[in-house]
Amino acid sequence: MAAAEKVPVKRYLRLAKLPHIWCPGCGHGIALQALIRAIHSTGLSQDNTVIVSGIGCSSRASGYLDFDTLHTTHGRALAFATGIKVANPDLNVVVITGDGDAAAIGGNHLIHAARRNIGITCVCFNNTIYGMTSGQYSPLTPTDAYATTAPYGNIDTPFDLCELTKAAGASYVARATTYHARLLEKLIAKGLQNDGFSFIEAVVQCPTYFGRKNKLGDAFRMMKLMQERSVPVSKAAAMTAEELAGKIVIGELWHRPRPEYTKAYDAVIAKAGGGR
Amino acid sequence: MPSLALPARRKVLMQGNEAIVEGAIAAGMRFYAGYPITPSTEIAELASEKLPRDGGRFVQMEDEIASMAAVVGASLAGRKAMTATSGPGFSLKQENLGYALTAEVPCVVVNVQRQGPSTGLPTSPSQGDVMQARYGSHGDYAAIALCPASVGEAYRLAVRAFNLAERFRMPVILLADEIIGHLRESVELPDPSELTVVDRARPTLPPGEHKAYRPGPDGVPVVPDFGTGYRFHVTGLIHGEDGSPTSNPKVVEQAVRRLTTKVTDHIDEIYEAEERDLADADVAVFAYGGTARAARRAVREARAKGLKVGLYRPITLWPFHDERVRAALQGRRAVVVPELNLGQMAREVERVAGAGTKVVRVNKVSGEPLTPGEILAAIEEVF
Ligand code: SF4
Fold first, then answer.
1. Thiamine pyrophosphate enzyme TPP-binding domain spans which residues (chain A) (predicted)?
2. What is the complex's ipTM, to 2 decimals?
3. pLDDT tens sequence for chain A (276 residues)
């Protein structure tokens, strides 16, 4: 790796708030670093960027980041973020959310933020479990997996949040795992540059609750598993549904620019005869 | 040029819901997020039309919860923000309303009450959310709720709601009812230059020196706007002066208590009530909102019959001013409390009225307003 890639990660952290609350081996730290590096590489100003999160292990990240940060109610991060972005479209707005946060209680806000194509970058730390409340199944827990509320195995079918947000109208959708940290960073950076709603799913390991309950081993083994199960999007295109079962398709899954919401509202203001 | 100094007042016929929007915009509202619900919908409709004319912004959110969340976000971004709803929607907003209270975010929430419980009677008047306005969210806090009894007052209280929200950094509830929301009256709108408009205090210390949640001497913190370089943290978790979550028992105790004391310490600044004919009254009528109109008429008719009756009308419903109400009601033979609910404020009146004063409840939950005749009958009964 080239020396030029040295990123002053600490500059973006509230060092006084560390150590973080995450368990040893948790993937959230890797995802957080990918986000910081993406912010750095795209040159977003620390003073003009707001980080919004919901409630859950991952959502605690907002407290560690040295920006204007908003730690909201469970599932509602995108709704708070929508208010921020509409009120002041000049702000860069980034949302950190978890799978339970974004897809269960926050599912409605997720599809509507995508539908509006509002200029928010949403990074979903998907650990496929409710970590903070100690291991209940989430809308992204795989079928047959075990959880404290699925002691006989999960019968629910998990969402594919990338397919969901793409169908709902997001203009940029991507996915990577913590094993592919550099790819994750690149994908988030591209999402930050997209003028519209960007959704990036970061598949992260939760050794404490998902891993242990499903006998997947430690963080290292869980990441190894991610590596084995991941298929780049280019390769996935030529694979059948059966071949793709249980696989994680990674890379840029969708990018189709279309009018951004607050810009469209600028046109409303112009029509109404108001100045901004 | 003699007339220039005079304010350009306008006399217009308008609906209560319209007056709320006009008042809000005059107070500086530049952001509205809402979800349509009867009988508050005209507020959203008019906001969507008027706001962009002023460079303001309107969003029809996907639900009531999102609307409340967006209002908090917009306010933190520095804009004066409002949402409007009715009973069932107000319930859905309660979690994020509590967030706004805890994170001390100024905003206005209008509840045009309709008959409940549940979906109830969507187009019928009610005063059933009085206790929800006070205690609807979880945990301990103090609420501010203002209650208009005319279209003109709906305008004035919309301005006042924003002013109090900005002053005390908290959500303020404009607790209207369907009677006022849908009533059309001729109102004289003041010239904007006549209005007192309060803007939230902004930090005077530079970033790095300012603590985002350090309370001022009046118990109210000066919270910066997002995007102005302060890089601070906002959370619904109990937090210390820097905004970071804490479970330090001393800090938590102080922080939670301050959410109440910043209101109760300034109750005289917040509280407003109308008193009429009370000086010699043997009997008082305690009425508010749409019901106060019928009560006023009943009092007038009772006076015409020679009965010594007066009216006490709280305009600030919450905080409840124990001393003011006690001073106004104590020693009366009886206090008649007409309400479009089963006695929500009557309980408060009973609490402060004193042993010698009988509290007579006049309640209606049929979806119809109380008539002056019904209130007069109750007055006559106690004489
Ligand atoms: S519970 Fe799981 S997701 Fe939460 S911090 Fe621990 S390892 Fe990470």
1. 55-201
2. 0.97
3. 445 568 999 999 999 999 999 999 999 999 999 999 999 999 999 999 999 999 999 999 999 999 999 999 999 999 999 999 999 999 999 999 999 999 999 999 999 999 999 999 999 999 999 999 999 999 999 999 999 999 999 999 999 999 999 999 999 999 999 999 999 999 999 999 999 999 999 999 999 999 999 999 999 999 999 999 999 999 999 999 999 999 999 999 999 999 999 999 999 999 999 865
Q: Answer yes or no: pTM beyond 0.80.
A: yes
Long-range contacts of B195-200 (CB under 8 A, 24+ apart): B195/B26, B195/B27, B195/B159, B196/B159, B196/B163, B197/B26, B197/B27, B197/B28, B197/B159, B197/B162, B197/B163, B198/B162, B198/B163, B198/B164, B198/B166, B198/B167, B199/B28, B199/B166, B200/B106, B200/B166, B200/B167, B200/B169
Q: Taking CB atoms and an 8 Å cut-off, how many pairs form between chains A and B?
A: 145
Indicate if ligand 1 lies below 6 Å from the C-beta of A231: no
User: Which site among B234, B238, B242, B247 would you substitute to test the A interface, given the most A Cβ atoms closer than 10 Å to its Cβ?
Assistant: B234
Ligand 1 atom with the shortest distance to the CA of A23:
6
The B residues from 227 to 266 touching A (CB cutoff 8 Å) are 227-237, 244-245
Any chain A CB within 8 A of the CB of B99?
yes
Length of chain B: 383
Using the mean position of ligand 1's atoms as its centre, give its distance from the Cα of residue B145 in Å: 42
Q: Are A138 and A130 in contact (CB under 8 A)?
A: yes
Ligand 1 touching residue A209 (CB < 6 A): yes
Nearest CA to ligand 1 atom 5: A22
